[in-house]
Specification:
Helix content: 55-70%
Family: Belongs to the hemerythrin family.
CATH class: Mainly Alpha
Strand order of the largest sheet: 1-2
Strand content: under 5%
Largest sheet: 2 strands, antiparallel
CATH architecture: Up-down Bundle
Distance between the termini: 39 Å
Keywords: Iron, Metal-binding
Structural class: mainly alpha
Radius of gyration: 17 Å
Protein name: Hemerythrin domain-containing protein
InterPro entries: Haemerythrin_Fe_BS (IPR016131), Hemerythrin-like (IPR012312), Hemerythrin-like_sf (IPR035938), Hemerythrin_metal-bd (IPR012827)
């Protein structure tokens, strides 16, 4: 059973991010496959966690370069997800309780499409508006305190 299918709805038309998102889905599915096969899912989970840490760090760097506030809701959501993922790993390794891993699989599969559609789409929009090239790290529009993106870059953000 596929944990999360990659669909056109997840495509944001930002090649670096779309590739990273596809990899996230592949890691999540490999983790889910290990759980379904009733084999040790920790190696797949470690790979998923490492990928997610790098994935979020990449987005955090882009947000900083585009002038997002340091404590924005997009970054806060990343921090919450990583905290939960790390806590599930702690339960699995220190307490030998694997149930949080099963729960997390379902929760990540439900969370990710919404996050991509809202938070990441707003990031891509801001990057496009500012002329930010994630490959070179260059930004056409100089980012000043006045030009900084409030909140997560979404017009619906209450920040």
């Amino acid at each position: 059973m596929t944990t999360l299918a990659w669909t056109d709805n997840l495509v944001l038309n930002q090649p670096s991010l779309d590739t990273t998102h596809q990899e996230f889905v592949e890691h999540l599915n490999a983790f889910g496959d290990a759980l379904d096969a009733k084999v040790d899912a920790l190696p797949a989970y470690h790979a998923l966690l490492a990928h997610t840490e790098a994935h979020f760090a990449m987005e955090e760097d882009w947000m900083a370069r585009c002038g997002f506030e340091p404590q924005n809701c997009h970054s806060s959501q990343h921090a919450m997800v990583l905290n939960v993922m790390r806590e599930a790993l702690r339960y699995a390794t220190e307490l030998n309780d694997r149930e949080p891993l099963n729960i997390l699989r379902t929760e990540l599969a439900g969370w990710f499409p919404q996050h991509a559609e809202m938070m990441d789409a707003a990031l891509v929009f801001t990057m496009e508006q500012r002329g930010f090239d994630p490959v070179t790290g260059e930004c056409r529009e100089a980012v000043t305190a006045e030009a900084g993106a409030a909140g997560c870059g979404s017009s619906s953000c209450g920040h």
